[in-house]
Amino acid sequence: MTSSTVTAEARPNRFLVARRSGVGPYLFILALTVVMYFVLGPKQFVNALTIGAIYALVALGYTMVYGIIELINFAHGDVFMVGSFVSLFVLTNILGATGPAPDLATIVYQLVVTFALTMSVVGVLGVTIERFAYRPLRNAPRLAPLITAIGISFILQNVVQLIYGPSPINTPQVIPPSARVDIAGVSIGWINIFIIVTAISLMFGLQLFVSRTKVGRAMRSTASDREAASLMGVDINRTIAITFLIGSALAGAAGVVQGLYFGNITSALGFQSGLKAFTAAVLGGIGNITGAAIGGFMIGFVEVTAANFGFFVWAQAAVFMILIVTLVFRPSGLFGQQLGERA
Amino acid sequence: MSAASSPAATSPRGVRSRIGAFSDRHRSTSVFFGVGLAAMALPLIVLLPPFNSFSGQGVWMDGFTIAGIFILLALGLNIVVGMSGLLDLGYAAFFAIGAYTYALAASPFTGIEISFWPMLLIGAVMAAVFGIMLGAPTLRLRGDYLAIVTLGFGEIVPITILNLSRYTEGPNGIGGITAPSIGDFRFPTTGNPWPYYLVMLGLIIVSMMLIYRLQDSRLGRSWMAVREDELAAAANGINTVTTKLLAFALGASTAGLAGVFLAAKLQTVTPNLFRFDVSFTVLAMVVLGGMGNIWGVAVGAFIIFMIQSVLLKQLNIFFDNVDVPILSDIDFLQYQFLLYGIALVGMMLLRPEGLFPSQRRKRELHTEEDADFGEHGDPMGASPE
């Protein structure tokens, strides 16, 4: 009791709302983007933005869950992986897609159905996980939900392996990778444009939802002080469930996009991408939407830069170094709340 | 197996309580006799049916020796996770560091030849140094960050070993590692399993004694205080960062020790031996055995290792023979991690204190049931005595 009051005062939780961090971080990011453009060249730059968009979508889920119940949801990366497999199932088994769709109407139809189904299934999966694995342990010592999260991550990964096997599986690339458009003399794939636009609109939608709607306000108040929020009539359980629903649905969207862009998926995806997306969330300042989004794009840049200069095997190591360096020098991330020492 | 009598020492009546009271008073003696008796009984038990039908005594004892490595790992991780409440998900990295330290110090690859015995210590120290390097920046932060950072570290170390082939032979690993020797007697790699078995027995006994002593020391009590409420511990004058760092370093050094032994036992090390599944296996051992309880963790590690290396294989063979259509198609080894996952979740939900709980941990984990609003899960009501 006492300790929760103390910490709540010491750390005003600005969940999902950027701290007034000044223009510094924004200038830094602008400069970084410009530098990256010239370092990577336009083609790889767009590639980095696309990969970054996927990480950003996954990072949002980490950040939202952390913001609201201060749990690192280890299973989130695997929820994303499940999303990619659900989209594979929807595309091949329900819609019968095998490769690039023949015309625009089919593309739109297939994408809408895939996104809608995948996001709902994965969202419900997230809520279920919360209900059965995290909610009973909400008042237990911190270690307990972390360990169930790891257990859930194992279960998801192995169930998918049980069904689809451990080796990578090809997914239908509904938007043909060859469809390109010239923008200012640079040839850009429609798939890249589609992914970046989708991701950014989802992020804006989320930002609006959280800052403007009643449920969003309930989420923010739950994040900043759960007891007070419940005294003010906020249904805590429902609010947390909605947070998981949205976070997981976004991971589901990222899963769809992953299959569309890379054309293959594997059950190990959750582990690899999960770590990177988590780094993105920390880099941006965990608990903060804008931060997670920008962190995702930055991780995309790091990875593509490493690959571009022939250090692909070291990309993972580079991301991990960034995680450590961020934690040492700016544990609150670029936009985040203060996270000093606490139990 | 026969060691299981000691965790039961917590029950109140009869012979058990007497054994319990005795082992509380004479920890080192009871460790010595408990582990010693178990270790003497095991080679005899496997001569009896049904065990003798699976494989010969030598094979069994090799298995027990490897199980011993996992017991060491679980004991070390227990310091970090069970006693201090820090989640370390990259524990295999320190295991790898220990193993490669010995591999580089005693193999034709480098041409250096240092004896096994000092290397046990050096490997442990190397792992501890890495532990401190990793822990120093991250232990100031909240516990969950440590989990992620160690997870990353656990990934990076095998990747680094894999890609620095100039120094580590990359994916092929380092072979021809020198076997330990006492005087002129060089440990046989095949045939006689006793030398390795006895050395492992010695390592386990010494580590368990040391860890018991640590647990009862000022440091051990600080670990517990930090685990139960870091804020309160800090308010009582405990330097939480140093305390956590020491836990982390000591846990790492135990893994380093186990790593040196592994390298000497297998006489070859490859990066694949140290993937994250080792970290998770050891974590499952600690959680299932009972976080914080030294005996429980050791027994848990032994049982899980035996289930994984013997029972699942036997199940495969058994169902292959009986020809049940679905069951004979299932490769039980493949689902080991699915089982771990289910076990971890089930354990946390139903019996968070593990199969063989430590008393304190049990009290701590069950007080929340009557606390109505412990928001951050700080078990405020859990400071007993």
Indicate the structural class of chain B: mainly alpha
Unreliable stretches of chain A, pLDDT < 50, 5 or more residues? Answer: 1-13, 338-343
Provide the succession of SSEs of chain A: HHHHHEEEHHHHEHHH
Low-confidence stretches of chain B: 1-11, 368-385
Name the quaternary structure: heterodimer
Helix content of chain A: over 70%
Cα gyration radius of chain A (Å): 20 Å
Mean pLDDT of chain B: 80
- Based on secondary structure, the structural category of chain A is mainly alpha
Largest sheet of chain B, described in full? Answer: 2 strands, antiparallel
Question: What percentage of residues of chain B falls in helices of 4 or more residues?
Answer: 55-70%
- What portion of the residues of chain B fall into strands of 2 or more residues? under 5%
Q: What is the highest CATH level, the class of chain A? A: Mainly Alpha
CATH architecture of chain B: Orthogonal Bundle
Amino-to-carboxy terminus distance of chain A: 13 Å
Counted up, domains of chain A total 1
Q: Kindly report the greatest chain-chain contact and the residue count on each side.
A: A-B, 58 and 61 residues
Instruction: Count structural domains of chain B.
Output: 1
Care to describe what's here?
The complex is a heterodimer of chains A (343) and B (385). Chain A has helices at 2-10, 24-69, 76-94, 104-134, 143-164, 190-212, 214-224, 226-231, 236-262, 269-284, 289-308, 315-329; strands spanning 169-170, 180-183, 186-189, 264-265. Chain A is mostly helical and 343 residues long. Chain A has one domain: ABC transporter involved in vitamin B12 uptake, BtuC (Orthogonal Bundle), CATH 1.10.3470. In chain A, helix 7 (214-224) packs across helix 9 (236-262). Chain A is globular. Residues 1-13 and 338-343 of chain A have low confidence and may be disordered. Chain B has 16 helices and four strands. A two-stranded antiparallel sheet of chain B has the order 1-2. In chain B, strands 3-4 form a two-stranded antiparallel sheet. Helix content of chain B is 67%, strand content 2%. Residues 1-11 and 368-385 of chain B have low confidence and may be disordered. Chain B has 385 residues and is an all-alpha fold. In chain B, a hairpin with a 4-residue loop joins strand 1 and strand 2 (112-113). Chains A and B meet through helix 1, helix 5, helix 10 and helix 12 of A and helix 7, helix 11, helix 13 and helix 15 of B.
